[in-house]
């Protein structure tokens, strides 16, 4: 019994380390999810309103190095969701999946390092969209149609899996190893 316990613990630890490595090192993956933040800026000569916009984007990185105009069939943006809060009239979550956003634009000048913050790399000429309540206003800038809040792209960072998801993956490896014995 003692020998089995000694063998299972290293296998469980190895499973947790493997799960962490898989989650942290997916630079080769074609589909990656990102978290996005836009800053509320001054637009139309008015001060910033205090509204905020955050979102997620799913990107097919095998298609993501080039200029993809509004209706390009090979557009690398697989999904896009934007949540606007503290706006006068355009609060809510808008997404490609719900058809609230129906056109996207992705224009980059070179290969991106998907493990680093994307905007800071200086290679994104334009990332924008057209939707029911929002529309592109300038390069990497959008405006809400109801309240005219203007948002400028601030950061695009790779989404990080939650620690609990990694722990469950490691626990699954541990249980699987134990059942084999």
Task: Summarize this structure as a short list of keywords or feature phrases.
single chain, 181 residues, alpha+beta, seven-stranded antiparallel sheet, three-stranded antiparallel sheet, globular
Break the fold down into its secondary structure elements and pairings.
Layout: H1 2-24, E1 31-41, E2 52-60, E3 67-68, E4 77-85, E5 92-95, E6 101-108, E7 124-131, E8 134-138, E9 141-144, E10 150-158, H2 163-180
Antiparallel strand pairs: 1-2, 1-10, 2-4, 3-6, 4-5, 6-7, 8-9, 9-10
Helix pairs in contact: 1-2
Give, in order, the helices and strands. HEEEEEEEEEEH
Spatially, the strands of the biggest sheet line up as 5-4-2-1-10-9-8
Number of helices: 2
Strand coverage percent: 35-45%
Largest sheet: 7 strands, antiparallel
The CA-CA distance between the termini, in Å, is 11 Å
Overall structural domain count: 1
* Secondary-structure class: alpha+beta
Q: What overall geometry do the principal axes of the alpha carbons give?
A: globular
Helical residue percent band: 10-25%
């Amino acid at each position: 019994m003692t020998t089995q316990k000694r063998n299972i613990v290293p296998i469980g630890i190895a499973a947790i380390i493997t799960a962490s490595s898989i989650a942290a090192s997916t630079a080769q993956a074609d589909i990656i999810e990102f978290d996005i933040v836009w800053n509320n800026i001054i637009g139309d000569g008015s001060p910033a309103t205090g509204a905020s916009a955050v979102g997620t984007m799913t990107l097919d990185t095998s298609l993501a190095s080039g200029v993809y105009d509004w209706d390009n069939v090979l557009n690398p943006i697989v999904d896009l969701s934007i949540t606007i809060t503290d706006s006068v009239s355009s609060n809510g979550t808008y997404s490609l999946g719900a058809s609230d956003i129906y056109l996207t634009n992705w224009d980059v000048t070179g290969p991106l390092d998907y493990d680093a913050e994307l905007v800071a790399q200086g290679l994104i000429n334009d990332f924008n969209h057209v939707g029911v309540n929002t529309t592109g206003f300038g390069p990497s800038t959008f405006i809400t149609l109801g309240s005219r809040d203007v948002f400028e792209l601030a950061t695009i960072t790779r989404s990080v899996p939650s620690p609990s998801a990694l722990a469950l993956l490691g626990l699954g490896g541990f249980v699987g190893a134990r059942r084999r014995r």
